[in-house]
Amino acid sequence: MSTRAVRAPAFGARVRTLVLALVVGVWPVMTAQADDLADLETARALYDAQRYAEATERLERLLDGDAPQRLNRAIALEARKYLAAAYLFTERGSDAERQFALLLAVDPEYQLDPALFPGEIRAVFAAVRVRLVREERERADRVERLETERRAAEAARLLAESARLAALRELALQETVVEQHSRWIAAIPFGLGQFQNGHDALGTVLAVSEGLLAGASITLKILHDALPTPSTFALLTPADQAAVTNLELGYRAANLVTVGLLVVLMVAGVADAQLRFVPSTSRTRPRTLPPELREEAPTVSLEPVAGGLRLQF
Questions:
Q1: What pLDDT score does 164 carry?
Q2: Confidence at residue 1, expressed as pLDDT on a 0 to 100 scale
């Protein structure tokens, strides 16, 4: 027995199985479509006979809802067209408009045959088409407006974020140093308390004044000590003795005055520093950022373009 003779029956069996599967799969569909077409023709005959209530009942049963899944597309369009017309003849205008809208949702370019449908029906159909076009345009405009608003909000958010990052970076480039002040330093004369409190002008006046008075007092003391001692004073002539006595009295009086003024200024300066004591002061100084933070913050701007705005980085 040859190999060809053995394989031929197997191949034929596969072909018969395939044909049978196609028949089993396609036949119910073809049968259903034939039944649907027969129902459509029956409903159309009722419509032509002006039996609109019966035609409406059959067409509604054929369509079985707003979005029939089993119907052929062409059959569904025809059924909706006649159902809408039948609705109009039975004073159900809103139902007719809904069927026309469902029809146009499937085929926006669909046209009614003027030889089959009177002008009143075609006018309703045209009005539904205009309404759907307007609603679609309004929907598109609304979507575009919302998208424009979304882009503008996103741009504003990015701009605010960019400004915030730039501000944070500027803050990071500076550090605030707080200096705590001491009451003990405020008790030191020569304007140190005023300088600590930030009253530099008064501190300068006190430092210069007290320094001059202290220098004058020291100078007078040196001059006083340079006068003849009692052992040498007796060797002077009466006139020289009188001159030395006058100098000694003058030096002593001037020294008392300078020391008194110095003490008054010191006390006044310390009292001022204590009464107007500033517990602490703060100052800023530049700070070096770590390498990972030295990158510049992104700059974001809005650039007008046709139809809206565009982010420019």
A1: 86
A2: 35
| Same-domain check for residues 93 and 187 | no
Three-state DSSP string of the chain: CCHHHHHHHHHHHHHHHHHHHHHHHHHHHHHHHHHHHHHHHHHHHHHHCCCHHHHHHHHHHHHCCCCCCCCCHHHHHHHHHHHHHHHHHCCCHHHHHHHHHHHHHHCCCCCCCCCCCCHHHHHHHHHHHHHHHHHHHHHHHHHHHHHHHHHHHHHHHHHHHHHHHHHHHHHHCEEEEEEECCHHHHCCCCCHHHHHHCCHHHHHHHHHHHHHHHHHHHHHHHHHHCCCCHHHHCCCCHHHHHHHHHHHHHHHHHHHHHHHHHHHHHHHHHHHHHHCCCCEEEEEEECCCCHHHCCCCCCCEEEEECCEEEEEC
Q: Write down the pLDDT at residue 57.
A: 93
Give the pLDDT confidence score for residue 56 in this predicted structure: 94
Same domain assignment for residues 17 and 106? yes
Asked if residue 46 is part of any domain, the answer here is yes
Q: Does any domain span residue 71?
A: yes
Full domain range(s) for residue 279: 178-286
Block means of pLDDT (10 residues each) for the chain, 313 residues, are 40 46 42 79 94 93 71 90 94 94 94 92 96 95 94 92 82 79 88 87 90 90 80 77 83 88 90 88 77 58 57 56
Domain assignment present for 38: yes
What's the CATH code of the domain at 44? 1.25.40
Q: Is residue 312 part of a domain?
A: no
Q: What is the pTM of this model?
A: 0.47
